[in-house]
């Protein structure tokens, strides 16, 4: 995993470049280019993954606990045909609606959503 160093005052802050690298998720895709996460580091990752998988039927989905394993912050990347007719804001609203029972317990959420290009 690649990291960038950013200075905030006197302390460096590591930022995961993969979170901001949308090119992977933006490429043209079809169902044969499916990219669903296979390994989970925490039970929380697996539960969030299962919720999104059942509601969105995505062709690409990755859920990472970026809080060091305590379940207070997640990075989610998802590509689904259900997003095709929605703006980015509406895509995020849909994901937030699906996760509405969990989000209040979290400190933060990093979310990347993408339409399936035909």
From TrEMBL:
InterPro entries linked: BolA, BolA-like_sf, Mt_Fe-S_assembly_factor
Gene Ontology BP annotations: protein maturation
Superkingdom: Eukaryota
GO cellular component: a single term: mitochondrial matrix
Pfam families: BolA
Family according to the record: Belongs to the BolA/IbaG family.
Name this polypeptide is given: Bola-like protein
Organism annotation: Huiozyma naganishii (strain ATCC MYA-139 / BCRC 22969 / CBS 8797 / KCTC 17520 / NBRC 10181 / NCYC 3082 / Yp74L-3) (Yeast)
Gene that specifies this protein: KNAG0E04120
């Amino acid at each position: 995993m690649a990291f960038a160093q950013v200075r905030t005052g006197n302390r460096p802050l590591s930022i995961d470049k993969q979170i901001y690298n949308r090119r992977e998720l933006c490429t043209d895709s079809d169902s044969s280019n499916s990219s669903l996460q296979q390994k989970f580091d925490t039970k929380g990752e697996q539960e969030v993954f299962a919720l999104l998988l059942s509601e969105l039927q995505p062709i690409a989905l990755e859920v990472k606990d970026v809080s060091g394993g305590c379940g207070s912050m997640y990075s989610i990347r998802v590509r689904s045909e259900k997003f095709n007719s929605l703006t980015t804001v509406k895509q995020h609203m849909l994901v937030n609606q699906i996760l509405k029972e969990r989000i209040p317990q979290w400190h933060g959420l990093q979310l990347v959503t993408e339409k399936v290009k035909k």
